[in-house]
Amino acid sequence: MAIFLTKDSKVIVQGITGAEGTKHTRRMVASGTNVVGGVNPKKAGSDVDGIPVFATVAEAMEKTGADVTVVFVPPAFAKGAVIEAIDAGIGLAVVITEGIPVQDSAYFWQYNLDKGSKTRIIGPNCPGLISPGQSNAG
Fold first, then answer.
1. Which residues are paired to 37 by β-bridges?
2. Exposure winner among 36, 49, 101, 127, fewest CB in 10 A?
3. Rounded to 5 degrees, what are φ and ψ at 107?
């Protein structure tokens, strides 16, 4: 069995300022995870419990040496968040968000393959299974 996350991993949280992101970041820190930053373009320059928030994954990686991201953004933004992480060259992306449309998951999976599969993707947690003509919104 391969080990993807170690005590030396430096983790960023995309969506750290949202309710779920904040709650789970606190749990990760309490469990010993080395959370070195968060990402939220609208709240860059702030912090969550002393953890700095950056505008982009690339900036967070540059400033902290992060090699893992955990994605806690709403389903509508998850595809973009994962693509941003892939473009930044993060080594591991753990996609926690539930309800991501299947086509979005398929898109970012193929996007990663097209870019050389440099990012290992775990998740998403639970794809949004919707029928054609249905909405995934509320």
1. 12
2. 49
3. -65, -50
- Backbone phi and psi for residue 57, each to the nearest 5 degrees, phi listed first: -65, -45
Nearest-angstrom CA–CA distance, 138 and 123: 22
* 47: three-class secondary structure by DSSP: strand
CA distance 133 to 48: 39
Q: For 25, what's the count of Cα atoms within 13 Å in the CB-facing half-sphere?
A: 30
Sign of the torsion angle spanned by Cα atoms 63, 64, 65, 69: negative
pLDDT band, very low/low/confident/very high, at 2 (cuts 50, 70, 90): confident
| Tokens 């982009």 sit on residue | 56
pLDDT at 103 over 50: yes
Structure tokens belonging to residue 22: 């904040």
Q: Which of 99, 109, 58 is nearest to 77 (CA)?
A: 99
- 45-73 tens-digit pLDDT: 999 999 999 999 999 999 999 999 999 99
* 73 closest CA partner among 49, 50, 57: 57
